[in-house]
Amino acid sequence: IAEIVDLDRKIQAADTCYHALTHQEQLFVDTRYTDGLSMRLVARSLGISETSAYRVRRGVLDKCRAILGA
């Protein structure tokens, strides 16, 4: 049961992070991690440069780390 509680806590933390993201950041997460697209294809689907896609990724990671205290 402890494993289920831990998993539920992790899911809630991920949900909190996701909902704290901007719309563009959520689209990035969806296309990169849910759809599994490469950074090049993520950038194309978002209409931004690949360099900008990497910046969006950094923002997502930084925001989630701040929320999680990691």
Largest sheet, in brief, is: none
Strand content: under 5%
What share of the residues lie within helices?
over 70%
| Number of DSSP E strands | 0
**Terminal-residue CA separation:** 25 Å
Unreliable stretches covering 5 or more consecutive residues: none
Radius of gyration: 14 Å
The class by helix and strand makeup works out as mainly alpha
Mean pLDDT, as a whole number? 94
Shape: elongated
Order of helices and strands: HHHH
> Number of DSSP helices?
4
Task: Write up this protein.
The structure is a single chain. It is built from 4 helices and no strands. It has 70 residues and is mainly α. The longest helix has 19 residues. It is elongated and about 45 Å long.
Indicate the topology.
Layout: H1 2-20, H2 23-34, H3 39-46, H4 50-68
